[in-house]
Amino acid sequence: MMRVWWLSLVLLATAGASPNRSLPMPPIPPAFPPTAQSAPMPDRDAPEPVGPARKGVEVNLQDFRVQRPMQGLAYSPGSQFQSSEDKRSIQTPGLTVKVPLD
Q1: Tens digits of per-residue pLDDT, 9-19?
Q2: Is 84 within 8 Å of 48 (Cβ atoms)?
Q3: pLDDT of 88-101, one tens digit each?
Q4: Distance CA 72, CA 79 (A)
Q5: Who contacts 41 (Cβ-Cβ below 8 Å, separation ≥6)?
Q6: 3-state SS of the chain: helix, strand, coil percent to 5?
Q7: How far apart are CA 40 and CA 28, in angstroms?
Q8: Which of 58, 47, 53 minimizes the C-alpha distance to 99?
Q9: How many Å apart are CA 96 and CA 64, to the nearest integer?
Q10: 100 pairs with which residues across the strands?
C-alpha cells in the first residue's frame, strides 16, 4: 500500500513539473482573400523527359564494392579502417539486370 502511495506522489510531482504547453496563435485570415488568381495546376501538355532509348533487358557484370571517401578516424595520416570485405583481394562480381517497364 505504501508503494502505491509513493508511486502516485512521484507521478503527480513529475506531471506537475512539466512545462506549460500553450499552443501558438493561429494566423489570422485576410479580410478579403484573393480571388483573381487560380491555384497552380500541373501542365498536362508538358513533353516527356527525353532519355536514352532502351530496347530491352540489359544484363551487366559489375563489382559491388562500395567506394567510401577517405576516412582517417583518428588513425595515422594516410591510413584508414578496412572492413573484412575491403581486405579481400578479389571481390565477388555480381550481375545487374535492368528491365524497361514500357
Answers
A1: 888 777 766 66
A2: no
A3: 666 677 888 888 87
A4: 6
A5: none
A6: 20, 10, 70
A7: 23
A8: 58
A9: 10
A10: none
